[in-house]
Amino acid sequence: MFGGYVWARYWHFIAMLAIVILSVVHVFMVFAVDPYSIMSMITGNYDPSLSPEARNARPFYHLFPRRVTAPPSPPPPEAT
After folding, report:
1. What whole-number distance in Å separates Cα of residue 8 and Cα of residue 11?
2. Cβ density class 21-54: b for 16+ within 10 Å, e for less
3. How far is CA 23 from CA 14, 29, 33, in A?
4. Is residue 6 part of a domain?
5. Number of structural domains, the chain?
6. In terms of residue numbers, what domain contains 33?
7. Smallest Cα–Cα separation from 46: which of 35, 61, 59, 56?
8. Sign of torsion, CA 32 35 38 40?
9. What three-state secondary structure class fits 62?
């Protein structure tokens, strides 16, 4: 079905590698967005005041420089 014993081993290795990469990326995303949820996965208690929404958390926000925008110009004077 998978091309024999040798090819089945290759497909198994590729599938295992994909699952490991998916797991590592998933855990990294949890740490990046809501690191306080890790302890709640173990204890079952979650403090809503530490949620990303309550903290106004922005992952990796400090890595990108902010654009400084000019203040809005005053409206043009009305013609009489």
Report:
1. 5
2. eeeeeeeeeeeeebeeeeeeeeeeeeeeeeeeee
3. 14, 10, 16
4. no
5. 1
6. 19-59
7. 35
8. negative
9. helix
Model pTM? 0.55
Classify residue 65: in a domain, yes or no: no
Copy the structure tokens of residue 53.
């929404």
Residue 57: how many other CB atoms lie within 10 Å: 15
49 is a domain residue: yes
What 3-state DSSP class applies to 10? helix
Determine, yes or no, domain membership for 53: yes
Residue 29 has pLDDT above 90, yes or no: no
Residues 36-64: tens digit of each pLDDT: 888 888 888 888 888 887 877 776 676 77
Question: For the residues 59-71, what does the mean pLDDT come to?
Answer: 72
